[in-house]
Amino acid sequence: MKKKRFRFQWGAFLLFIFYGGLFFLLFTRMVTLQATGEVEGQELAAKAAAKYSKESVITANRGKIFDANGQVIAEDTLSYRLIAIVNKEATTNSKKPRHVVDPEKTAKILAEYIPMDEKKIYQQLTRVKDDGEKPYQVEFGGAGRGLSHEMMSKIKEENLPGILFVNDLKRYYPNGIFASHLIGFALKEENKDGTLTTKGKMGLELTYNKELTGKDGKVEYETDAFSYLLPNSEKMVTPAKNGDDIYLTLDKTIQSILEEKMTEVAKEYNPESMTAIIADPKTGKILAMSQRPTFNPDTREGDNMKWLNEAIEETIEPGSTMKTFTLASAIDTGVWDPNKWYPSGQYRVHDRVIKDYNRVGWGYITYLQGFQRSSNTAMAHLLKLIGEDVFFDYLDRFGFGKKTGIDLPNEASGKLLSNYPVERVTTTFGQGSTVTPIQLIQALTAIANDGKMMQPYVIDRIVDPSTGKTIKKHEPIVKGKPVSADTAKQVKETLASTLTAKDGSASDFILDEYEVAGKTGTAQIPLGNGRYSWGSNEFLYSFLGMAPVDDPQLIMYVSIKRPKLNGEAGSIPVSKVFNPVMLNSLKYLNINPEDVKQVDDTKIQDYTGQSAEAIQVELQNDGLQPIIVGGGGKVIDQYPKGPQKLVKGNFVFLKTAGDVVLPDFTNWSLRNVLAFKALAELELEVVGEGFVASQSVSAGTVVSDRSPIVVKLKTPAESFIKDVEAPTEGETE
């Protein structure tokens, strides 16, 4: 048998070497990867996490802004953002297109719903990128954001291919024009990473942007390659932190009354500008603040408007309202003698002559008559008696020439001119030197509040909505006592006489039901270079007043610049704001008219633990209106708390155990309804403003469940008697 000869197979050998080498390299790579966990210097675990770990954002709400009674002034609300898919690749089924098929038709229809020109919409729908490629989707800027649910539904009904909507949050101002320059507004802004954040652009929205802005949260989780959540994967949730809520001192009802009258007078007289402030003189709380021209913070639309809060940021020459504080200085220094005579008409200061508004005066008259007639020369003579240095020291005590410290931005300080003798004299009657309206309000608190001057403020408290914890609380601040209580009383009485005296300059501001004290102002408006405007339509008309005189609950400043008068005195348009707003606001606050308030105040005590029925009889005998909240028996809580003095006619709520019997809410104020709601812990839904007109559940019903009860209120304009017609005679200085 012949042996087989071994033949060396070069081909097989080479294949063995080749594949063996590949196996060796692969094995080495696997060992290396397992040992180090890295590839090309990168962590494989990190790359896997980056690819399969997902993250979604939990959007934080911006903090809300409330009025003093918890009524919403600004809040985030659900809205919709319009998106158009314009790339054909989005469509996989030609019968069901998912992109904009007909840009021309789509643009024409969208232009009917959003505030954007049809041509611009078409350009956006047909836009191409720098590289010539069509974007996947486009948006429409501010015109396509903040759409309401109603608007979104209408666009959807058009069945436009490629038109989609994304849920969004919009800053919403439910009251429209409402202290707009004070509240300001906030807008969506795009961040560097493409996300959107609501940021304050003006007013409180800007000043307190940090407090109002929340912090977004996130959800982290793992998915597979098809974006399905992996089994047993952990979700990590970082909750969103909503922005802090801000509660203002503003009262929505009083602010609404003011806005309504400001709008009416602005339409009637077409002035260059108007400013008004209402405050509580006992605390310094600002209850209302407005100006004209103004704007709607939802749309930012406004004509010929300054984007600043004139009550705080702009200085004025105050005119004769400044005589209030000249009078206070004279009384407090002991030089005021109301029955002393002086020569009216003219007063010479070196080469300058100060004249009364009628140029010739009224001959020799008393200082009281001079003040009532708003005589400039009376103030000049008083300055000589007071002493110039002493007078300017009093102005400093009243806070003029320096900021009040109100919790608002960009406050102006004004300037007191005293370099020349004539400047010191003209300052006594409010020309030359400048002040701000908020300084006048602060100074008047001292007259209305027994000599104690209160710092004005608008922020009551800042609250963390997630915990309910008050982060910051503003307490009333006494800025000083520029005059004595006796001086303040005499000033109030003298100011009241400017309305009631035969030749009083403020007779237009008389109210039938309340006694008002105040001072009119007619200031020339500086044109620059020492020149001033002149003419009945060229003045700044104003009134600085308080009511009721015996115990002022409200102080108010109103100014109207360059109104178009029809032969009327300049005080008439001012009175058309002051009179109805002061009247309705006092009634809303349950301040009794003067014919009722002549009776003495009565004092309530802490009635906790006592018989509610016995206390009810006692309070009724004292002229109060007790309301038992509950089934009767022992008092477990009350409002207002005792001991304190109340004007007769006020409500006192006594809470007891047991089911609540619903009272007749007719003609109750919002404040009393809210007090009852808080003590009764009922689901009361309050609709409207002013005073109660109707209720959904009859009085006398025992309320034992949590069914909502609707209480409807009417506005003061509907509830109150017709406004007092102002007399035609007014001040002309």
Automatic annotation (TrEMBL):
Residues 598-658, 659-715 form the PASTA domain. Keywords: Membrane, Transmembrane, Transmembrane helix. The keyword Transmembrane helix applies. Pathway: Cell wall biogenesis; peptidoglycan biosynthesis. CDD domains: PASTA_Pbp2x-like_1, PASTA_Pbp2x-like_2. Pfam families: PASTA, PBP_dimer, Transpeptidase. It catalyses: Preferential cleavage: (Ac)2-L-Lys-D-Ala-|-D-Ala. Also transpeptidation of peptidyl-alanyl moieties that are N-acyl substituents of D-alanine. InterPro entries: Beta-lactam/transpept, Beta-lactam/transpept-like, PASTA_dom, PBP_dimer, PBP_dimer_sf, PCN-bd_Tpept. It is found in: Membrane. Its EC number is 3.4.16.4. The chain crosses the membrane at residues 12-31. PANTHER family: PENICILLIN-BINDING PROTEIN 2B, PEPTIDOGLYCAN D,D-TRANSPEPTIDASE. Belongs to the transpeptidase family. This is serine-type D-Ala-D-Ala carboxypeptidase.
